[in-house]
Design goal:
The chain is of the alpha+beta class. Among the domains are: about 50-60 and about 215-310, Elongation Factor Tu (Ef-tu), domain 3; about 95-180. It is built from seven helices and twelve strands. Helix 3 runs antiparallel to helix 5 (about 140-180) and helix 4 runs antiparallel to helix 5 (about 140-180). The radius of gyration is 41 Å and the shape is elongated.
């Protein structure tokens, strides 16, 4: 009797323990859709607030080259110098082309050929009129009248040709002036001289690099944003941009481009942000992280805008254009 009671007791205990284990496992697993819904509502999950790495790049970047074989006669600027749009940077050997331009300018300005043609046209017209009057008195033959008319027509055409040739001379002068201007290398935009490739006296081939100019205000950051965060990003939205190097303060980046095409392999979307760099505190090539936790309100974005003073950029690295 005692042995049977013991066996029943342990059987009942095993049943209770098994039911408890099953209940706990069911509660732990649950419905995956409920977990995902809860994660979305609370903002939890590994991809809820992604930070994507990128590199700061110049807003504009141009490497200027020679359009023809030439020799560098003057290098006006030096590396690290700030330049304005249209400022002269490099002068190539322009002696021959300058002479051609001056000759074309003189040809375009001259009116001697036109004036001479006008005198001949006027003289032939008077001769024709005189012969016509003589023809009425039977004093001039028909051949004399025919020859006078031909001379007058020829003189008129010579005058029109002289005007056309002067117009062509004006066009040739403009063409030679443009060729001369191409030997004067100017800055296509306001920026920073990043590198010079040639020194005065060196020769350059056609399309060979001369100088590199970059615009560092503003800076651009292009990143590949995960698809999970891309749906919240719109052009005009602002997000915090944090340099990996803590010596640089965070700034605000404004979205200026959000691609409508997804990269199938990585399931990412290309996003471009623009960062104000008026004080020159940030440099191109820095590794940064863009936080997509949420677009920054305008008030908060203003709090991390760059100020006019105080930056991690050593001012000694920038050469003033007046130095």
């Amino acid at each position: 009797m005692r042995a049977g009671s013991t066996t029943g007791y342990w059987s009942m205990l095993s049943i209770l323990v098994g039911a408890w284990i099953l209940q706990g496992a069911g509660a732990a697993s649950g419905d995956p859709r409920d977990d995902a819904r809860e994660s979305q509502e609370t903002g939890a999950g590994p991809n809820a607030f992604p930070e994507v790495s990128g590199i700061t790049r110049p807003h504009q970047d141009a490497t200027l080259a020679s359009i023809q074989p030439a020799r560098v006669t003057r290098l006006i600027v030096s590396e690290g110098q700030l330049v304005e749009e249209g400022e002269l940077l490099v002068v190539l050997d322009d002696g021959v082309q300058r002479v051609r331009t001056e000759k074309a300018e003189a040809d375009a300005a001259s009116t001697i050929v036109i004036e001479l043609a006008a005198v001949k046209m006027e003289q032939s017209s008077r001769d024709l009129e005189r012969i016509r009057k003589l023809g009425g008195d039977d004093s001039a033959s028909s051949k004399e009248l025919y020859d006078a008319r031909a001379i007058a027509d020829t003189a008129r055409l010579r005058f029109e040709e002289a005007k056309f040739r002067r117009e062509q001379a004006v066009r040739d002068h403009e063409f030679q002036r443009l060729l001369l201007e191409r030997l004067l290398v100017r800055a296509p935009f306001a920026g920073y001289v990043a590198k010079t490739f040639k020194a005065p006296g060196e020769s350059v081939w056609q399309a060979e690099d001369l100088i590199r100019i970059v615009a560092l205000n503003p800076l651009d950051v292009s990143i590949d944003c995960p698809l999970s965060a891309a749906h919240t990003i719109e052009v005009g939205s602002r997000f915090a941009v944090l340099p990996d190097d803590p010596r640089w303060e965070p700034r605000t980046g404004e979205v200026v481009f959000a691609s409508s095409i997804i990269d199938p392999a990585s399931q990412t979307v290309r996003i471009k942000l623009r960062i104000d760099n008026e004080n020159g505190g940030w440099i191109a090539g820095m590794k940064v992280r863009v936080s997509f936790a949420a677009p920054l309100p305008e008030e908060q974005a203003r709090l991390i805008e760059p100020t006019t003073g105080g930056s991690a950029l050593d001012e000694s690295r920038v050469v003033s254009k007046h130095d």
